[in-house]
């Protein structure tokens, strides 16, 4: 599905939820961002009941530049799953983990991947199968020669021959999550807030699609912390969260009027 069409569907999910909860009809009037590519414009203008609303949608990560890191991990490390499958000693399977946002650019990734593979091949025979009795002999964590970041290789029982890739969550994950929310409010939030001067109600939709590091409770807590530090004029009238990491989407109201994390919408 094209990005624009998918975004429109997400916005309409929120509109249907608002329409149902308030017993008000809505009508899409315009999509300014499609027409005004050279100036900041919201994604959609909608009439809900008798009021006109300016709506902005954006996706949020759990840490800054997470999607960039996802792409780098996919390109550099995921090929190792096939390269090293059934190539390391059995019994057992292996998990290779790295920290987030450590993969650099400006170097030959093919050569780097070969260096990582060679290290795994050399280290794997030294590892014992993971169990309470073998800890910590079931893993090795170090920065190998020729690799600009730490690697951690684990050996676990079962699924013989399988080689997995993973990442460690940062120790300051919640601080980074709050930073992402703040940056979003300072960019996308401000973008839609400008419509207040023209008499529009304003709505910001935050889309989360990170089943590993995010959930409604954590995002709500970060939003509440950040929003309490901003003035009323700096915030949209309403902010909604939609979780799209599962087939069934879940919608939450984070701000309605002056109320942050309202009990009901």
Average of pLDDT? 94
Give the CA-CA distance, first to last residue. 30 Å
Globally, the shape reads elongated
Return Rg in Å: 23 Å
Indicate the low-confidence ranges by residue numbers: none
The strand order across the widest sheet is 1-2-3-8-9-10-11
Please describe the biggest sheet, giving its number of strands, its sense, and whether it closes into a barrel. 7 strands, mixed
Tell me the number of helical segments per DSSP (H or I, 4 or more residues long).
7
Q: Give the total of beta strands.
A: 11
Residues in helix, %: 25-40%
Order of helices and strands: HEHEEHHEHEEEHEHEEE
Instruction: Label the structural class.
Output: alpha/beta
Proportion of strand residues: 15-25%
Tell me what you see in this structure.
This protein is an alpha/beta fold. Among the domains are: 1-39, no CATH class; 67-168, no CATH class. 33% of the residues lie in helices and 25% in strands. The protein has seven helices and eleven strands. The protein has helices at 3-22, 32-35, 66-76, 79-83, 109-123, 173-193, 216-227, and strands at 26-30, 44-48, 51-60, 93-99, 139-142, 151-156, 163-168, 201-208, 238-243, 250-256, 259-260. The strands form two sheets. The chain has a seven-stranded mixed sheet, sandwiched between helices. Strands 5-6-4-7 form a four-stranded mixed sheet. Strand 8, helix 7 and strand 9 (238-243) form a beta-alpha-beta unit. Helix 6 packs across helix 7 (216-227). It is elongated, with a radius of gyration of 23 Å. The two termini are 30 Å apart.
């Amino acid at each position: 599905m094209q990005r624009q069409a998918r975004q429109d569907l997400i916005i309409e999910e929120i509109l249907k939820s608002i329409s149902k909860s308030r017993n008000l009809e809505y009508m899409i009037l315009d999509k300014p961002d499609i027409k005004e590519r050279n100036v900041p414009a919201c994604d959609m203008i909608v009439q809900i009941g008798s009021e006109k609303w300016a709506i902005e949608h954006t996706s949020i990560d759990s840490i800054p530049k997470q999607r960039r890191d996802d792409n780098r991990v996919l390109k550099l490390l995921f090929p190792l799953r096939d390269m090293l499958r059934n190539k390391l000693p059995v019994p057992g399977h292996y998990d290779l983990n790295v920290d987030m946002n450590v993969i650099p650019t400006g170097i030959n990734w093919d050569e780097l991947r070969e260096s990582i593979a060679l290290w795994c091949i050399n280290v794997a025979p030294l590892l014992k199968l993971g169990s309470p009795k073998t800890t910590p002999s079931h893993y090795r964590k170090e920065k190998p020669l020729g690799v600009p970041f730490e690697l951690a290789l684990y050996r676990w029982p079962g699924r013989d021959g399988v080689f997995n890739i993973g990442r460690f969550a940062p120790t300051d994950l919640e601080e980074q999550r709050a930073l992402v929310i703040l940056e979003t409010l300072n960019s996308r939030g401000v973008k839609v807030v400008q419509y207040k001067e023209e008499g529009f109600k304003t709505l910001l939709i935050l889309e989360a699609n990170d089943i590993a590091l995010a959930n409604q409770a954590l995002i709500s807590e970060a939003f509440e912390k950040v929003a309490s530090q901003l003035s009323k004029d700096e915030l949209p009238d309403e902010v909604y969260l939609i979780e799209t990491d599962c087939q069934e989407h879940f919608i939450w109201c984070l701000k309605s009027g002056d109320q942050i994390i309202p009990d009901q919408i």
